[in-house]
Amino acid sequence: MNVNNKYHLDQLIEISSNLSESKKTDSLDVPFVDFPSQFAEERDSIHDCVDLVFSEDQFVSEKKIEEFESLVAKQVGTSFAVGVSSGTDALYLGLKSLNVGEGDEVITPPNSHFSSTSAIVQTGATPVFVDVLDDQNIDPDAIKAAITKQTKVIMPVHLTGRVARMDEILEIARTRDIAVLEDAAQAFGARYLEQPAGSFGKIAAFSAHPLKVFNAAGDAGFLTTDDEDLAHRLRLLRNNGLHERETLLEWGIVSRLDVLQAVILTHRLKSLERKIFGRRSNAARYRRKLDPRFIFIPPCQGREFNIFQNFVIQVDHRDELRAYLRDHKIRTAIHYPIPIHLQPAASVIPRGRDSLARVERQASRILSLPVHPYLTDRQIDHVCCTINQFYRDKDRL
């Protein structure tokens, strides 16, 4: 999804300006997300989506789901897409479709949302946590070191909307005949080496949670694959394992994508490119304005097209800075303050803590700044000036 190919520079500038102007006021109260502005921009069309679903009286319509799946598959560049009820279910069903179960190991990083590991545990398999790089994405060398005879799947997480080093990961998997399931929950629209997230592995799982860049009005998710047999099995698994109405082929769950969410997502797909451009423009402004003496921002490589699901900086005195920003009406978040391997629920999972030093260090330093496309330049400048002032004052002490 290359916005630079579709729009000329002057059009992109106009798009960014229109997104900023859609806010009611150019306030220095900076929200982390801005659902009211999104709804104000699309109020009539969202009402149309609701009217369509209710007027047709097709609340579990296969036709609307298939239309959405076709558009998603085309966007990602895969042969098939399968809609499900959440990103968590997408991960779980993706693993189940690969026959992951008890006795198997799945290699993944522990600096993701709990859902990534929960999906593995729910299959009966064992998560094997490995360390990450400075950009917070999984370290391919750590994957190599973690592979055993029990390794069934490698599950990289495209964290913050940045695709992991899939060329290296696929080569590792290919030489060892291991399947790759992309956790692309945060990365719909991202690319690596000009290839879309979700088109690298045997299968990929996406989330369309309201906080995602490509967001529904509630929980929603989907999977992509080029394997027809996998797509067929996923459709069985999301529908109790039923073939037609009365024939149960295997034990599944109820995880059908809600028709209303499918219709809303189909509508929102039309504006996704400019929303991504807005986020990328905001991220670029942060890079220009934040003082690099005090703030580390993982650099973007030429091979990456990052959609900035989150804009994450790494800083000292993180918690103190966050409180300072809150006092200046700037909302932030931490994704994620306690890595999964240090959570109480993970105490029964075998692990080597010494091998996760980078994850643990980053967990104490990461801070997500507002990056949604409804921010104004003045708001971003306020955030940057406030952060820079905090560290300059610290530096003078």
Fraction of residues in H or I helices: 40-55%
Multimeric state: single chain
What string, H for helix and E for strand, traces the elements in order? HHHHEHEHEHEHEEEEEHEEHHEEHHEH
- Termini separation comes to 47 Å
Largest sheet: 7 strands, mixed
So how many helices? Answer: 14
Approximate strand percentage: 5-15%
- Return the average pLDDT rounded to an integer: 93
What would the CATH topology of the largest domain be? Aspartate Aminotransferase, domain 2
Task: Considering the chains and any ligands shown, give keywords for the structure.
397 residues, alpha/beta, Aspartate Aminotransferase, domain 1, Aspartate Aminotransferase, domain 2, 2 domains, seven-stranded mixed β-sheet, three-stranded antiparallel β-sheet
